[in-house]
Amino acid sequence: MAGESDAVLEIRGATVRFGDRLALDGLDLTLRAGEVFALLGPNGAGKTTTVNLILGFLRADAGRVLVCGRDAGTEPVAARAETATIPEQVALYPNLTGLENLRYLATLAGLSLSRDAARRHLDEAGLAAEAQGRAAATYSKGMRQKVGVAVALARRARLLLLDEPTSGLDPAASAEFSGIVRAAARRGTAVLMATHDLYRVREMADRVGVLRAGRLVEEIDPGRLDHVALERLYLDTLADGGAA
User: Fold this and answer.
1) 38 near 181, Cβ under 8 Å?
2) Rounded-to-integer distance, Cα 81 and Cα 16, Å
3) pLDDT (tens digit per residue) in 25-40
4) With CB atoms counted within 10 Å of each terminal CB, which end of the chain scores lower, N or C?
5) What family, per the record (predicted)?
6) Do the strands 62-67 and 7-18 form a parallel or antiparallel pair, or are they unpaired?
7) Residue 70, SS3?
8) Confidence check: pLDDT of 12 > 50
9) pTM, whole model, 2 decimals?
């Protein structure tokens, strides 16, 4: 197995407090190129705190977060340059087309993207050609997410962060998004997904971690369990000592 120096993301003993509340309690997590890691946990378990820590929006009270060797606490801009994020609701400019949104968002990231290059990225992200020229105000959640994936492709992000990416998607759109994420991983992107979706992670994730009260209490190979067994293990893990 590759060494720690090959990691795209390293979280080492990360601890975050909000007043008297311990949001992360010595979290350790390593993610390498081409891996998809699903972070499962109930509300309040620390999933969003973990994402914000990686992005440098929070500073750890103890421990370190490294993105491609860059310390997200002391070098947040450099760490974010290696990272793309697709939140639960991707915000686009409603009066711009998908193509125009991608080119404008690329410009904000310091990139000059031709129309042809933008179309190629949108094609790779699975956005239909006819939709690329439509106003984003007409887009479904799944279509907005595809523009977000295209932004990540254009930026050549080495780490992709997904926050509840399949919530609100119908089964067909959810399955399609799973395929897009797996394709990104095959291109070498490391993917960290914070989610509640037990069923979809079996198709998307190489590894699954269960987060409870800010600690990674279980790591699971989803390929070894069916949906029922995965759900039972998840619930049993949360019940062991009480959920956060």
Assistant:
1) no
2) 23
3) 999 999 999 999 999 8
4) N
5) Belongs to the ABC transporter superfamily.
6) antiparallel
7) strand
8) yes
9) 0.86
At the second CATH level, the architecture of 1-82+159-167+190-244 is: 3-Layer(aba) Sandwich (3.40)
The amino acid present at 9, given as its one-letter code, is: L
Decide: 126 and 107 in contact? Cβ < 8 Å: no
For residue 106 the two structure tokens come to 């690329």
Q: What is the side-by-side order of every strand in the sheet holding 62-67?
A: 21-32, 7-18, 62-67, 70-71
Which amino acid belongs to residue 94? Answer: P
Complete DSSP assignment for 19-39: TTEEEEEEEEEEEETT-EEEE
Structure tokens at 48: 């969003």
First vs last C-alpha separation in the chain: 33
- Residue 204 and residue 143: Cα distance in Å, rounded? 19
Q: Are strands 207-212 and 36-40 parallel, antiparallel or unpaired?
A: parallel
Query: Which class for 133: exposed (0-12), middle (13-18), buried (19 or more C-beta within 10 A)?
Result: exposed
Tokens of 8: 């795209």
Distance CA 218, CA 210 (A): 5
Domain layout of the chain by residue ranges: 1-82+159-167+190-244, 88-157
